[in-house]
Amino acid sequence: KVFDPSLASVSMSDLVRATNNFDPARVIGDGGFGLVYFATLPLDGRLVAVKKLALNGMQGKREFEAEMETLGSIKHPNLVDLLAYCKIDDDRLLVYDFVENGSLDAWLHEKEDGPRTLDWAMRLKIARGGARGLSFLHNDCTPHVIHRDIKSSNILLGKDFEPKIADFGLARLMSPMVSHVSTDAAGTFGYMAPEYNMTFAATKQGDVYSFGTVMLELATRRRPDVLVELKGVRTLARWAALMLKHGRATELLDPIFLSNAHARPPSHQVRAYFQIACDCVREVPEERVTMRQVYERLSLIVDDDSTYTPTTVSNKHAHREDIGEMKA
């Protein structure tokens, strides 16, 4: 079936030909539910990404259905475009518009010049675009969509580094009238909200926590699944909250910015940015901001609204480790 009216019908033989019989040399992604191949459609030369889901019974079928239930019916500039699918016997394939600059994860951690290419303005743009896409899923879809696996490798960067949220294999639909969907535990270590381990409930607040973690990763270039080597501080979220509390937000930044005075962003923008991220990763789900608020507050930073004053971290939620024991 084809979701995009500008795309001609796609058959299994077309996809076999387009991927050179699923040549390993064409693999551009290795998700939890299958390999992603770069392909050129034979009919019109369109560049696409083809996900071939792993044949592991009900699990693969469930992820296939989740992608189609969500991306098959919605379009947004900050969501990857699902163009078509192909289902023959046990084979399940999904065809997406090719997003040419790859994942945010690769730019932060794998490309040699990636961190230098992503200047502060570009990182703000990526954060705001991601927030816009997730806010759309949470508020403007009917039913609402909980992504459940927000992480830097699931944020792709388009032609002008406009972010697109990808990989909806774990996504769940949710009525606007309910607060959560009961489901199996899912997500990625380091990005998962702490309450997931206890409740196994998919919530918007869980997505917010994951997005706040991506914001921290984007600005610090530290992987969230690598423990922070500070006395009494184990996670990226707690480190950021502590540094923000003590007025040292700028020290959290990617060393690329700290080593070059010309690249260093305005300190008031840095404080505002980390305040938003820390408001996303609060321990108590009900105390987190919404994605709409995240998008609106990031927009103020991008527009550099001089009237915007970030609120301070309240003592109620700050961590109380001795600042003298911190070694950034």
Write the layout of secondary structure elements.
Elements: H1 12-18, E1 27-31, E2 34-40, E3 47-53, H2 58-70, E4 82-88, E5 91-97, H3 104-109, H4 114-117, H5 120-140, E6 144-146, E7 155-157, E8 163-165, E9 172-174, E10 180-182, H6 196-199, E11 201-203, H7 204-220, H8 236-245, H9 255-258, H10 267-280, H11 291-302
Antiparallel strand pairs: 1-2, 2-3, 3-5, 4-5, 6-9, 7-8, 10-11
Task: Report the helical percentage.
Answer: 25-40%
Strand neighbour order, sheet with most strands: 1-2-3-5-4
Beta-strand share of residues: 15-25%
The H/E string reads HEEEHEEHHHEEEEEHEHHHHH
Instruction: Catalogue the unreliable spans.
Output: 305-328
Instruction: Categorize the overall geometry.
Output: globular
Mean pLDDT: 84
Radius of gyration: 20 Å
Continuous helix count:
11
How far apart are the first and last residues' alpha carbons, in Å? Answer: 52 Å
Biggest sheet character: 5 strands, antiparallel
Oligomeric grouping of the chains? single chain
Number of strands: 11
